[in-house]
């Protein structure tokens, strides 16, 4: 207790980042090739933290660490390692250590580990498994990627629907094997259809002669084995589920999904949204090397280059106008930039609302109208400000008018583009976050430059 | 079963969005003032879906629905209602229905409901509670916002450390009251210090004479009552926790946090990131009215206007240069836009890596170097392309050179700004997502225009 108390003042600031001093010591030990010191330094770390450590250090340090101390990678660490360095780590591990690590894992963790690996590495890991486990993993891999079937674990704690609490407890006490974590006993009928489930809490708190079917949860839901994992994760969050059975086409029980898997999916989907909105490949990671990073980002920059050239083309059509009033060149990026910003705002709100199922067919019309209204109001507001600047600073009231009108036009277009583009992508079953940032700013740039310079040509010249 | 089978073909596409036809019927019933039809239409809906419905319909429809059918709002629905419309809904509810709804809730749900309300509404709800519950809620409200103390529920299932499985089961069977959901029995010493916990699964599967302390979980962790909820949520995700005790300064047990609360926090933090990166107040929602939306977005647009004027000022310094070669006006937004895009890419990766504790003091140097390297490589790549365009399209090799150099400079600056700005914000304990998008694009705009036009002045004139 005393020791814990000393730490107390710091506890409320605990943010679970790896301690920089510890990482420094670990890297020192790697440099010295001191396996014993590595073992003792990493001993207090959780497997997830060891995996993070591997992700955060440089590629050479990673290679050295794995060569000096391969036994540090047990099954749990292996299953926590980020996709981006998984192949690399597996490559460096001696075959017998890999085999041992893989055999420690439950079938759903092996599936998760194996599914993004290249064929030869998949083979190595499948061969490391025992016969029965291998069959289970291969069966899971037949379900499509990102499906409930890939996410579920196959081991489910079930009871016949007519059982009592006492019968369930007795059967659990004599079971050969139970999952690491389970939260419900699923009641099944003779044809293996799940008919409901009881929480372990209710079972523990009920008399032995209570029928299980009298203590079932109202919130019971099942998932189809082919449902998208993103929809499953949404349902877990929306309906506060802890675990839920997975069924096949005939409604027969084939597995169970637990909340920690759902939380993981939710986290990955969010990562995807943030990265896709910014035009970065969704698989980029802090541990990627320079070459990998360039490979991920260049295509998006190339798209941006093409769209930027479109804007340049629009501007070049008005070079006569700019020539006669060079102040236009300084002011035109303001209109474009305000449009880009307003469009990005609408976009983020729409993408998020689509992800939370709060923007639907029923209210899309109202939301689009609201956004257009907000765009118009902000447009007028900033039109007044910038109109005054145009007039005041440049002494040209008509220049003020041009900026003002262009601002209103562009902010309305921005609001519409920021909402309609993700809605359209969603309509076609594409990820609304995908590349929509580029589409929206292209739209606002082109419209902004065209409206501003076009109006200037008509009104000022 | 038959009924379920008919639905099967659609099940894998189930995405849990409210059905548009159903929403249409509900709005029809609202228009007709038909409370009975409203009751039967919403009967199959989960409380979370009814709350979503209220959020998604328009403000007038919301008012009408609540007036026609206030009994639809029970405690569960109330606790699911989004912050953005909570005050509005509470205002429309008759006092007796509000009282009934609030009394159904557990103390942590009341705290969650009440904490963002204005004083008078808080009073109304506190008065609706029974004496004991009111004291518990008031106690929780003494903890700071976003702390573990606000997140936890105060009701914990505990057992003395010397108990056996049988004693624990007997005590659960005779308990007057147990929490809706619980996953562990927490062992406490005589001074109420939590010393470990056992999963209900292990308890159920063990013999009655097994000592609880022999089946404790390795993964046991406690949280301090003042820890930030974001750090708690991170730890739940990182260490696969299901529930964890909360302790005070003396390490005494004061409550428990469960994974569904953590999942909720994680979801809110992600929402904040997406919205803040896009320069939208993090509390914006699809149900906000036009006025509220304008109020949230305008300050950010105003900041953008100021920074855009900074760029305009930079450009205006070079009006002589533009006058003598108007092609510069068309090409300059390309350099700025590429910088903005590349900076946003670096920014998204850095913000996300900070959120997942993968960008830390130990590897910040390496990540900054990598980003700078990627910026330089992409800079050279696009320098070659745009240099060729400048030369080819405009027939001016020196113009190509100017674009090329400006591109390299701006993409390196973009990479550095996109990484260093969020790192700096984090260093000062600010949210790295906050406004960093605006900082980064201001930087790349100003540098882009300055480098391009400055070089043009030196090299071309």
Protein topology:
The structure is a homodimer of 461-residue chains.
Chain A: H1 2-11, H2 20-32, H3 35-42, H4 47-56, H5 59-68, H6 75-80, H7 83-92, H8 95-103, H9 107-114, H10 119-128, H11 131-141, H12 148-151, E1 158-160, H13 165-174, E2 184-188, E3 194-199, H14 200-205, E4 223-224, H15 229-239, E5 243-247, E6 253-258, H16 259-277, H17 290-316, H18 319-324, H19 327-355, H20 364-394, H21 397-427, H22 436-460
Parallel strand pairs in A: 1-2, 4-5
Antiparallel strand pairs in A: 2-3, 5-6
Helix pairs in contact in A: 2-3, 9-11, 15-16, 17-22, 19-21, 19-22, 20-21, 21-22
Summarize the structure in short.
The structure is a homodimer of 461-residue chains. With 461 residues, chain A is mainly alpha-helical.
Number of strands of chain A: 6
The oligomeric state is: homodimer
Largest interface between protein chains, with number of residues from each side: A-B, 144 and 144 residues
Please trace the helix and strand order of chain A, writing H or E for each element. HHHHHHHHHHHHEHEEHEHEEHHHHHHH
For the record, give the distance between the C-alpha atoms at the N and C termini of chain A, rounded to a whole number. Answer: 82 Å
How much of the residues of chain A is beta strand, in percent? 5-15%
- The CATH architecture of the largest domain in chain A comes to Orthogonal Bundle
Question: Key features?
Answer:
homodimer, disordered N terminus, 3-stranded mixed beta sheet, Tetracycline Repressor, domain 2, 461 residues, globular, mainly alpha, 66% helix, CBS-domain, 3 domains
